[in-house]
Amino acid sequence: MKSGSTAISARTADAILVAARKRFSSHGYDASGLRAIADLAGVNVALIGRYFGSKEGLFLAAVPPTLDISWLLSGPMSEFGTRAATIMDMRSIRGFDPMLALIRAAASPVCAPALKTALDRQVIAPLAGRLDGVDAEARAGMILATMAGYDLMMRVIGIEALRGGVGAQRRSSLAAALQHIVDGDTGRG
Amino acid sequence: MKSGSTAISARTADAILVAARKRFSSHGYDASGLRAIADLAGVNVALIGRYFGSKEGLFLAAVPPTLDISWLLSGPMSEFGTRAATIMDMRSIRGFDPMLALIRAAASPVCAPALKTALDRQVIAPLAGRLDGVDAEARAGMILATMAGYDLMMRVIGIEALRGGVGAQRRSSLAAALQHIVDGDTGRG
DNA sequence: TCACTTATTAAACGACTGTTTAATTTGTTT
DNA sequence: AAACAAATTAAACAGTCGTTTAATAAGTGA
Hints:
By secondary structure, chain A is mainly α. In chain A, 61% of the residues lie in helices and 0% in strands.
């Protein structure tokens, strides 16, 4: 290497990223110490600084790129509600969960701007493109807000009313709410 | 005073509570240092420990009691959506905001249990009592989730699509989404 | 094996955290 | 004014934070 530029090992950098994603989604940004992340990755703390510059740099590299909903946009939009609600409820809480990382990092002022940019480009825009009718962007925002609010209340806070003992036959409240926004029934009249 | 019990001044305790509420709702639980709260209240840090025991005790005394929606349940439920959406958008960001405090403290494991209890008793239960139709509790949870998600995305993250350049004539996406849950159109059929 | 670069680590830095102890001011009563 | 309790403060505690520096280990080509 010519001068004092940083030297990297892709294997180690990935291990740090994986550990950071797990920790950020399970404990949030503020409560995730760099030493805890480094221990989880099996490396020394100093490597985080060398590879990602700072804690903020690590978060920016770890979380925002994972925020997308492409896995939800394939398929007919007439079944978006049930499809989204099903996947939302089937997610395992173990490991990394982008939505939980988003919710638990939102309070931090250093994370919010990057989250906003990523959500605008990777969630709102592609989702709005699949919505018919008026105010597609605003409705896409409402869909994102509804899903995030559901996770905030059910997984982060632990509200049990949302777990809804509904039988497999009836549509869940989440599916109904989401589909209504997709269909664009603005209730005029 | 007989023995070593604590001595309190209601005026000072209130000043601390007011400062704590402001700080918790604007900066979140983790990012709110006790010294910053004490400075905002114009008192010494040690007084917080003497009056509320710990940072957790201060939060429990400050935020959970303010979580209620009685101000939204007076009036016809047929206009709940527009009423809620209007108030949600008219709130000033200055001062104390219970919903923002809730969102920004949710990531902290010491806050979540108390928030859950307060929301169950002071939001879900009274709201469900005003809902007709099936699954009132689950739908009450969805209403809370929708409002919280809206605030999370619009006020905390700053998603602008939700600010919706909608004219005053058309109903906002938030109002439509909320009213749909209230009406209980589960879309069966 | 030697030299050299890459990769990783141990250790320390100053700053800040929540909490506690002891000293001091303020206010009231005798 | 003297005595006492109530209320507040300054200072220190041990711990953790993100970050940086210097030393060590691992890997590679000559």
